[in-house]
Every structure is written in C-alpha cells, then in structure tokens.
Design a protein that fits this description.
The strands form two sheets. Strands 8-9-10-7-11-12-13-14 form an eight-stranded mixed beta sheet. It has a six-stranded parallel beta sheet with strand order 3-2-1-4-5-6, sandwiched between helices. Helix 5 packs antiparallel against helix 14. The chain is of the alpha/beta class. It has two domains: 122 residues, 3-Layer(aba) Sandwich (Rossmann fold); 224 residues, Dihydrodipicolinate Reductase, domain 2 (2-Layer Sandwich). The chain is globular, with a radius of gyration of 21 Å. It binds nicotinamide-adenine-dinucleotide.
C-alpha cells in the first residue's frame, strides 16, 4: 500500500460515528486536504437525524447509512474509521475486519478486556491492519520528550510522577453525556486515561506489569438538589455555572439539538445527575516490567487544565508541563527541564501549539492518510499499544473492586511482556 492508496487509486474510507469527532476530525479533511489520496465513501450512524446533520456540516453529498452491515456490503471500503461511542468500538471494528476492511479506531480501542480480545482475534484471523488514533503521540513537545528519554538524557528511568488535570469546562463535559456511565465509556480511567497510559508506555518504551488504584466521585453527581434533567429543560440553568447552551455553538446545535428524538441522547445532560457512576478523582500506581514505577492521577474538576510530569532517572530528572487553561494559558512556550543531581539544569522551551491537541491531530492525519511516513519516534500505534493502555485502566477498575494489585496480563494474556 502506498500514499496513493490501493493499486494507484484513492483509498476509500468509511466513517462510523457521525457525532462531534468523526466528521470534523476525519471526514472534512478527507474531502479537503487529503482528497488527492483518499475518498470519503460513506458515513454511518445509528441516529438518522445526526447523520443528516453531519452531512450538512460536511457540505458535500456523502453516502449515508444507519446500518453498518449494509454499508460494508454495498460500499466495500478499504478502511473503516471507528468514531462511535466507546462501548461500541469492538463490535464495529470486528464487523469491519470480518467484511474485509482495515480499521482505524478512535481511542479507547475498546472498554473491556473482552472487547480488546475480540479485536485482536479478528485482526489475527483476517490479517488486516488495525491502527489506534493516538493523536497525543504527535506534536513537537511530546516527541522531544520521547527523544530525550530514548537518548538516555537522564539515564535509566526509575520512577515517574504524572498528573493530568481537566478543568471545569472540559472535565464537566464528560459528566453531561454517555461518558458518565461506566458501561459506555469504561470510566475516565479508560476513556481519558488511555491517552495518558499510552503516552507513558511509549515514552518509557515499557510494558505495564501491575496496577493498583484508588478513585472516587468527589465533585459531580447527585450533590446538588436544584437541578434539571438537561440544560434546555432546566429551571435553574440561568444560575448554574455548568449550564451548556447548545444554541450558542452552531456545530453543537446542528448535531445534537433535536437529534435526541431518535435515541434520547441529550448532549446537555446535567452534571449533577444521579445516574453518574464514574469517579471524577483518580489515583493509580503502575509498576512496569522493566522497572519504572509510575504515580498517576487524573482530576476532572480542576481549576486549570494541563499536565505535569517528572521522570526521575539515574543521572538526572526530567520535568515537563503543558497548560491548556489557567493563568499561564497564553505563554508562548512549554518548558522541558533537565536537572542534574549536582543542581545544574538544562532548559528547553518548545513553541506551543494550542490547537488540535498540541498539533497532534494534523500530524496524525498525515500519517494515517498519506502514510506510512518515516517514523523515527515510532509514533504510529497499532492494536498492542491500544490494548496495553486500555488494560491499565481496566486493571485499575478491577483493583478498585478488590483493593489489590492487578496484573493486566492476568486479565488479557496478549498484553503481557514479551509480546
Ligand atoms: N482522540 C481524541 O482526542 C478524541 C476526541 C474526542 C472524541 N474522541 C473519541 O471519538 C469517539 C466519538 O466521540 P464523540 O465526542 O464524537 O461522541 P458523540 O457522542 O458526539 O458521537 C458518537 C456517535 O456515535 C453514534 N453511535 C453510537 N453507537 C453507534 C453504533 N453502534 N453504530 C454507529 N454509530 C453509533 C452516536 O449516535 C453518535 O452520533 C469516542 O470514542 C471518543 O473517545 C477522541
């Protein structure tokens, strides 16, 4: 396969999931900057109203289906992009592979060990490619961190502190809709943390061996009596700091306002809803097979957004920090600091890219649609990377139930060291 696609013709993609992410991230670029090498052959969504809305937003006629099987039979795409609700990823990916299409999965690859196992099995049996769209691996800042660690800038990494903060604009959004149910998102330990565990596994080039966790719902959920079912039907929305006005954002309005008639999915659900069953404050310890010890946390109600991390190595310490909101959001650079045991320090300033996940989205698309490109940092992620990052979250959830350390490979042998 080349950048020209299959046998010299343009590669034909189908996108499954016509919500916020699928058409905007993957669809519009197929119709625009990648139209020379690729074609958007179909769009699929179980919600016919949102499907129509997504076609309107794309502004070009695209074949639309509410039935995945019919699309696979009639369109026969080369590659299916899976951008549906997380708990449906495994079924969509497996059906696509069985029908002869390669698969690009949005993160998380799946939400359960069973879902991951089914995808790995279908990939092995069909021999078709499976990629996981880890956009956070792309962009200059995270790439420089990988380069420094791989070049031995701080020697062997002994331990890592990694703390990710979601602010009350972004963090709250996960408590409005399907993400807030464990059965749909796998909780933020899977849905969100799969990005972070993947970054860490990739930066360290290491395999997670055991996991222990503590987590709780400390902020969202049924803590406020004065609330409504969703913002548009809420009597106290005017005084609520979390109210979301769908009408104020054209894309939100077109995709979601009215589409609930088909499936009851309210995009502006209340963050104080009693159905919320996921934690918003999470701590995880991970021991890697090759030695490094990780202390991880994720907070979904912080006063700023970004991450802070430090790698403690045999010959130095590497400190990194990226901010997306808060007092420093407009700074032009993000720092990378290497501190030596004698107190000496080396500092690099990496120019910030605010849009598109630190510039990652566009680089990822180049790689997916024009690639395979030269990849000295091994950014292209396949099913094993997708599986290993999800299984840290799944193991953390099991640990919450048992209070004990959990080995991901005990839940899914395919993610163990040596694979
Ligand atoms: N990598 C990133 O930075 C990033 C950012 C946002 C979202 N995402 C991922 O993209 C995916 C979609 O997220 P979103 O924000 O667009 O959600 P969304 O709720 O806006 O859209 C999901 C769509 O999937 C449809 N759907 C559900 N089940 C389906 C099925 N079985 N078949 C076909 N369609 C189905 C829904 O009707 C909905 O239109 C999620 O997996 C999410 O984790 C990734």
């Amino acid at each position: 396969m080349t950048a020209r696609g299959v046998g010299g013709r343009r590669r034909r993609y189908a996108i499954v999931g016509a919500g916020w992410r699928g058409p905007a991230m993957f669809g519009a670029p197929l119709l625009g900057r990648y139209a020379d090498v690729a074609e958007l052959a179909a769009l699929v969504d179980v919600n016919p109203i949102r499907l129509d809305a997504a076609r309107t937003l794309l502004g070009q006629p695209v074949a639309a289906y509410t039935d995945l099987g019919a699309m696979l039979r009639e369109v026969r795409p080369d590659t299916v992009i899976v951008a549906t609700r997380d708990d449906t990823h495994a079924a969509v990916a497996c059906a696509s592979l069985e029908a002869g299409a390669g698969v690009i999965l949005e993160k998380p690859m799946a939400t359960t060990a069973e879902g991951i196992a089914a995808i790995l099995d279908a990939e092995r049996r069909t021999g078709l490619p499976v990629r996981v769209a880890f956009n956070y691996r792309y962009g200059p800042y995270v790439g420089r961190v990988r380069e420094l660690l791989a070049s031995g800038a701080i020697g062997e990494v002994l331990s890592v502190d990694f703390h990710w903060y979601l602010d009350r604009r972004h963090g709250a959004d996960y408590f409005r809709r399907w993400h807030r149910r464990r059965e749909r998102s796998g909780t933020l330990l899977v849905h969100k943390a799969t990005h972070h565990f993947d970054l860490l596994n990739w930066w360290l080039d290491a395999v997670p061996e055991r996991v222990i966790a503590d987590a709780d719902r400390r902020f969202y959920g049924p803590v406020r009596a004065e609330r409504g079912p969703y913002c548009r039907a809420c009597d106290v929305r005017d005084g609520c700091e979390f109210s979301l006005d769908l009408a104020a954002d054209p894309q939100l309005r077109i995709l979601y306002d009215g589409a609930e008639a088909a499936d009851g999915y309210h995009r502006d659900g209340c963050v104080f809803d009693p159905e919320i069953d996921i934690p918003d404050t999470m701590n995880v310890l991970v021991r890697y097979a090759s030695g490094p010890m990780l202390t991880y946390s994720l907070v979904a109600h912080a006063a700023f957004e970004g991450f802070r991390a430090a790698f403690n190595g045999r010959t130095g310490r590497l400190e990194i920090e990226m901010v997306d909101s808060g007092p420093e959001r407009d700074r032009p650079h993000d720092p990378i600091l290497v501190i030596r045991p004698d107190g000496a320090a080396e500092r690099e300033e990496i120019p910030r890219i605010v849009e598109d996940h630190g510039g990652g989205d566009l680089e990822l698309l180049d790689d997916l649609y024009r690639g395979p490109l030269e990849d000295p940092l091994a950014r292209a992620a396949g099913s094993l990377a997708g599986a290993r990052s999800v299984m840290v979250g799944v193991s953390a959830l099991r640990s919450l139930e048992t209070g004990a350390w959990v080995r991901p490979a005990d839940l899914l042998p395919a993610v163990g060291p040596g694979r």
